[in-house]
Amino acid sequence: VNQSKLDLFCKLGYGKQDICKVLENLGPEALEDDVLKELIRMGSKPQALENQAQPSPLKLVARGSCSTTPGLKRLGEDESDSSDSLRPIVIDGSNVAMSHGNKEVFSCWGIQLAVDWFRQRGHTYIKVFVPLWRKEPPRQESPIADQHILEELEKQSILVYTPSRKVKGKRVVCYDDRYIVKVAYEKDGVIVSNDHYRDLQNENPEWKWFIEQRLLMYSFVNNRFMPPDDPLGRHGPTLDNFLSKKPVLPEKKLQSCPYGKKCTYGNKCKFYHPERLRQAQLSVADELRAKTKVLSTLGKEEERCNCS
């Protein structure tokens, strides 16, 4: 085999075995063009072209950035962390709808307002429970407004119908409150309702604690869903901490002393003194001694000046 031709086509990227076969068939005196034509006819390709021909896995890069795949992975993790840090939401659909309809009409728009409020906050797990018989056409004794909203929420896998059926013309309805509390308890989420579920609290002591600690009440003000800023009372957590799995402790804000510079408590004062930041925290007696020393030194200096 001609070594020079072998080296030449190896540098071009062709396989050594293919080159040896062609040179054996054509002979050592074959021209380089003939060898190249034979390699092409055999279907042999340079390794660089083979690599280009193979489709490389697509790498999705965020628009406006040139980040690598690990960076995108971190971004995805951050987004999942932000959604995972928020508690699952379980909405008592009947309670919310009747509350929005002033306890006269089952207003499905009220359910939509509540769902939109939690969506805007970033909650990904939102479930609404409504009895199945609310799918039926509205009657005079049970009017329903904006019934099409229930269908839309069901398509989005947000709304869940609790079972109900008719036996000899009578409607048999499963207790939807038990579904609501059970799912919220298993998901370690929050129940959105103005109902206290006292019967279920007496039924299960674990549910009793959960309902007391995870019940989020609300109001509708001018078609605006408004939960309280302090769901568990004045001394309880804020709404943000109540709805998040990892509550953020607020920074203690020091209240400034009402007496200011006239305060006589010294270092025993529990209030904030901005004028004492650069001073050592002295007791009242030490402060008085320091003042008397300053005054005495000033008096001695004045006497010396007068004598001179």
TrEMBL record:
<dbReference type="GO" id="GO:0004521">
    <property type="term" value="F:RNA endonuclease activity"/>
</dbReference>
<dbReference type="GO" id="GO:0003729">
    <property type="term" value="F:mRNA binding"/>
</dbReference>
<dbReference type="GO" id="GO:0008270">
    <property type="term" value="F:zinc ion binding"/>
</dbReference>
<keyword id="KW-0479">Metal-binding</keyword>
<dbReference type="InterPro" id="IPR040546">
    <property type="entry name" value="Rege-1_UBA-like"/>
</dbReference>
<dbReference type="Pfam" id="PF11977">
    <property type="entry name" value="RNase_Zc3h12a"/>
</dbReference>
<dbReference type="GO" id="GO:0036464">
    <property type="term" value="C:cytoplasmic ribonucleoprotein granule"/>
</dbReference>
<feature type="domain" description="C3H1-type">
    <location>
        <begin position="251"/>
        <end position="276"/>
    </location>
</feature>
<dbReference type="GO" id="GO:0016787">
    <property type="term" value="F:hydrolase activity"/>
</dbReference>
<keyword id="KW-0540">Nuclease</keyword>
<keyword id="KW-0460">Magnesium</keyword>
<comment type="similarity">
    <text>Belongs to the ZC3H12 family.</text>
</comment>
<dbReference type="InterPro" id="IPR000571">
    <property type="entry name" value="Znf_CCCH"/>
</dbReference>
<keyword id="KW-0255">Endonuclease</keyword>
<dbReference type="InterPro" id="IPR051101">
    <property type="entry name" value="ZC3H12/N4BP1_RNase_Reg"/>
</dbReference>
<dbReference type="GO" id="GO:0005634">
    <property type="term" value="C:nucleus"/>
</dbReference>
<protein>
    <submittedName>
        <fullName>ZC12D ribonuclease</fullName>
    </submittedName>
</protein>
<dbReference type="InterPro" id="IPR021869">
    <property type="entry name" value="RNase_Zc3h12_NYN"/>
</dbReference>
<dbReference type="Pfam" id="PF18039">
    <property type="entry name" value="UBA_6"/>
</dbReference>
<keyword id="KW-0862">Zinc</keyword>
<keyword id="KW-0863">Zinc-finger</keyword>
<feature type="zinc finger region" description="C3H1-type">
    <location>
        <begin position="251"/>
        <end position="276"/>
    </location>
</feature>
<keyword id="KW-0378">Hydrolase</keyword>
